[in-house]
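General statements about sequence and structure are easier to judge against a single worked case. In the encoding step, the backbone of a single protein was reduced to a row of integers, each denoting a local shape. The record that follows shows the chain in one-letter code together with its fold in token form.
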Amino acid sequence: MGKHSFAMLQLCNTATIMIKEDSSPYERDTTLFHELAHLHYSPPDNLATIFVSRDNLSYKQMEASIEWIGRKVRADPTLLRHAVLAFGLEPYVYDQASYQAFNNLVRQPALPILESFLMMD
């Protein structure tokens, strides 16, 4: 396995989220929101039990729920913009949510057809 360097994000002096620095922008953001969902929805007194019993069904169900919540919240352009900028991360455009969040911050080539496609619902 290769050696990874990690970006560490400090949260109110209570938790640290580590994200591989060589992650793609999408992977970085989904990891950030996944870990934020853990912090919000996982009771701290259950964390030790969860990490010991990764093979049990309730852990897998909780992990799937956390993943879904993290991805759902990351898809909100306002929340994506706030989280990325609040943690001092580089904004990137890689999908519709990130386009809506960072279009005015990220310099990118002009693609008029992309504009009309992204605005369709």
Summary: The mean pLDDT is 78. Strands lie at 6-11, 15-20. Residues 4 and 20 are 6 Å apart (CA to CA). The chain has one domain: 24-118.
